[in-house]
């Protein structure tokens, strides 16, 4: 389904592709319970963390490129989960129901969820998808079993074609297609042209004012001059915050000079 971002939505794998940890994932990720949850009922996630809201991420999938997941946790202990299996051509699927907190107030269980172990550890601005046994995944895949809270505090940048104008303070002069990127307003998928090749990734707001463009992929065409393309993709990987002034957008790292500057393809008032 297309209209995804309803208030406070939680999304995870539904039917078809599996987002829970497979046997092969267990072997490669060496899941464990090395860090048991502390049973501190006076100060736990349920009563000390601003947990209500919408979380987003791309979870590992056994037979697809990843499960695009939107999960919303509501204050009344209901949830909505929307998922889409990337690379399959399938549309969005939606489930919903009630969730319950664990006795120690650190884990939520999504009830009536099909084909997935709906267990999540709740931390500040993040949800960690747990195994069926309630363990955090460790190893190489651990960071991919995470959903980040969407704060809605960024300036409006989604759905706009942002054309690259400067890299590291230097005007961009390319032969061929002008580099640009666009963020899908619902799925937050990143797509664009780096100059020669098309690229794709996943945009997320990791914390208030902090952003990331995820792990980027691209086509593999060879062109005479790849310097601008390589520098552009490197800027996207490094950027951790952004600023917008009118039709101008800057990608930044920390408080350093902008890595890249863009201009909206269509001017807005």
UniProtKB/TrEMBL annotation:
Source organism superkingdom: Bacteria
Keyword hit for Lipoprotein: yes
PANTHER family: HEAT SHOCK PROTEIN HSLJ
One Pfam family this sequence matches: META
Record domain DUF306: where: 157-263
Matching InterPro entries: Cu-R_lipoprotein_NlpE, DUF306_Meta_HslJ, HslJ-like_sf, Hsp_HslJ-like
Keyword hit for Membrane: no
Keywords tagged on the record: Lipoprotein
Identification of the protein by name: Lipoprotein NlpE
């Amino acid at each position: 389904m297309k209209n995804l971002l309803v208030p406070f939505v939680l999304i995870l794998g539904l039917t078809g592709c599996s987002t829970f940890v497979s046997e092969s994932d267990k072997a490669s990720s060496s899941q464990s319970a090395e860090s048991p949850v502390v049973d501190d009922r006076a100060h736990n996630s349920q009563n000390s963390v601003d947990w209500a809201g919408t979380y987003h991420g791309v979870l590992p999938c056994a037979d697809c490129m990843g499960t695009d997941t939107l999960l919303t946790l509501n204050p009344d202990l209901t949830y909505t989960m929307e998922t889409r299996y990337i690379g399959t051509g399938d549309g969005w699927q939606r489930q919903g129901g009630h969730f319950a907190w664990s006795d120690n107030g650190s884990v939520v269980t999504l009830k009536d969820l099909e084909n997935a172990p709906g267990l999540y550890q709740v931390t500040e601005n993040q949800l960690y998808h747990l195994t069926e046994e309630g363990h955090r995944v460790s190893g190489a895949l651990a960071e991919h079993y995470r959903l980040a809270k969407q704060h809605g505090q960024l300036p409006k940048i989604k759905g706009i074609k942002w054309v690259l104008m400067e890299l590291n303070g230097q005007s961009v002069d390319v032969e061929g297609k002008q580099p640009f990127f666009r963020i899908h307003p619902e799925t937050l998928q990143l797509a664009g042209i780096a100059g020669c090749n098309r690229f794709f990734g996943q945009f997320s707001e990791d914390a208030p004012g902090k952003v990331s463009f995820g792990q980027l992929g691209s086509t593999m065409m060879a062109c005479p001059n790849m310097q601008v393309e390589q520098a552009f993709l490197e800027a996207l990987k490094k950027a951790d915050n952004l600023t917008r002034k009118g039709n101008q957008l800057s990608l930044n790292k920390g408080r350093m000079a902008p890595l890249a500057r863009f201009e909206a393809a269509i001017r807005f008032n």
